[in-house]
Amino acid sequence: MQIQVVKSKIHRVRVTGADLNYIGSITIDEELMKAANIIEGEKVSIVNINNGERLETYVIKGVPGSGEVTLNGPAARKVQKDDIIIIISYGIMDFEEAKKFKPIIIFPDETTNRLR
């Protein structure tokens, strides 16, 4: 049996922008992506702490060190600039492997979105 488990999580980052007139996705500072082991194009879940909204989208690489976390396209309607969100990616793996797997969870500075 295979199950879906948390692979990576960026816990509590500040939304720096919401661009409705874009194709879609979330743009994330490449340094945050690398630290959390998230790749461009990967499907992620977004949980908005401010309003309880949850959505799924895919990741676009942002400028390294910029602190950028921008929701693009329709997702921009679910957040506002300065909202605090959690970004979660999942992996599918064998049940026994999942019991031993440890996700990568990072806790950036909420004000700057920079790694601590």
Word description of this protein:
The chain is mainly β. The chain contains 2 helices and 8 strands, in the order βββαββββαβ. It has a single domain, classed as Barwin-like endoglucanases (Beta Barrel). An 8-stranded mixed β-sheet has the order 2-6-3-5-4-7-1-8. A hairpin with a 5-residue loop joins strand 4 and strand 5. Catalyzes the pyruvoyl-dependent decarboxylation of aspartate to produce beta-alanine. Keywords: Autocatalytic cleavage, Cytoplasm, Decarboxylase, Lyase, Pantothenate biosynthesis, Pyruvate, Schiff base, Zymogen. This is Aspartate 1-decarboxylase. One of its GO terms (molecular function) is aspartate 1-decarboxylase activity.
TL;DR of this structure?
11% of the residues lie in helices and 47% in strands.
Question: Which labels suit this protein?
Answer:
116 residues; 47% strand; EC 4.1.1.11; eight-stranded mixed β-sheet; 8 strands; Barwin-like endoglucanases; pantothenate biosynthesis; globular; 2 helices; mainly beta; aspartate 1-decarboxylase activity; decarboxylase
Number of helices: 2
* Count of individual domains: 1
Largest sheet: spatial strand order = 2-6-3-5-4-7-1-8
Q: What oligomeric arrangement do these chains adopt?
A: single chain
Give the class-level CATH name: Mainly Beta
Please write the string of helix (H) and strand (E) elements. EEEHEEEEHE
Amino- and carboxy-terminal Cα gap? 38 Å
Q: What's the arrangement of secondary structure elements?
A:
Elements: E1 2-14, E2 17-19, E3 25-29, H1 30-36, E4 43-48, E5 54-62, E6 69-72, E7 84-94, H2 95-100, E8 104-106
Parallel strand pairs: 1-8, 2-6, 3-5
Antiparallel strand pairs: 1-7, 3-6, 4-5, 4-7
